[in-house]
Design a protein that fits this description.
- With 207 residues, this protein is α/β, with parallel strands linked by helices.
- It has a single domain, classed as Rossmann fold (3-Layer(aba) Sandwich).
- It has eight helices and six strands.
- Strands 3-2-4-1-5-6 form a six-stranded mixed β-sheet.
- Helix 2 crosses helix 3 (61-74), helix 4 packs across helix 5 (109-117) and helix 6 (129-149) packs across helix 7.
- The radius of gyration is 17 Å and the shape is globular.
């Protein structure tokens, strides 16, 4: 039996992160800073001496490219990669592509804050964090968790909100706790799981 290792990494800074736009399912690329963040994440994982058996990512290029860069830095480009839109970012619906300041002018700062930071209130045409969790968690339970419990070392490159859904379950956080949780771009979160899928140990590689 292996270490039951699960590593979560939010993609590096995207072009729309930089412009302060709601991104969601829009397929935008990494910035130069985002590329550097993903490479740094790969180097920090290499420094931990980690080897991976399988990697999972979303259907969006910013997460896929971040994963490729991490695996390159790790010297593990032959690791099998599974891509699935179940791991996509939360869909921001009508907010997608809008500058966050412009959205506040249109709908009011309070309403936009509710959409961004409540657990179960969705923006028009989009998903709440609860909705996002409803597609992320079944995929995790069916496709990812069995690999971890079987002893595979698993790397996931995904998005702020799809990772929030996973962290909520792993760390047993309440809806209020998880919406307040910030997840930095390009910072690996390392979990070692017990045989019953609870967390035995967590390490944050920030800094």
């Amino acid at each position: 039996m292996g270490q039951r290792l699960l590593v979560l990494v939010r993609h590096g800074e995207s072009e729309w992160n930089k412009k302060n736009l709601f991104t969601g399912w829009r397929d935008v690329d990494l910035t130069e800073k985002g590329i550097a963040e993903a490479r740094a994440a790969g180097r920090s994982l290499k420094a931990q001496g980690l080897r991976f058996d399988v990697a999972f990512t979303s259907a969006l290029i910013r997460a896929q490219k971040s994963l490729d860069l991490m695996l390159e830095e790790l010297g593990q480009t032959s690791v099998p990669v599974v891509k699935d839109q179940a791991l996509n970012e939360r869909d921001y619906g009508d907010l997608s592509g809008l500058n966050k300041d412009d959205a506040r002018k249109k709908w009011g700062a309070e309403q936009v804050h509710v959409w961004r930071r409540s657990y179960d209130v969705a923006p028009p045409g989009g998903e709440s964090l609860k909705d996002t969790a409803a597609r992320v968690l079944p995929y995790y339970i069916q496709d990812i968790l069995p690999r971890v419990l079987n002893g595979d070392n698993v790397l996931i490159s995904a998005h702020g909100n799809s990772l929030r859904a996973l962290i909520m379950v792993l760390e047993r956080l309440s809806p209020k706790e998880i919406v307040a949780r910030e997840i930095a771009t390009g910072v690996p979160l390392i979990y070692r799981l017990n045989a019953d899928s609870t967390v035995a140990e967590k390490k944050d590689l920030a800094g």
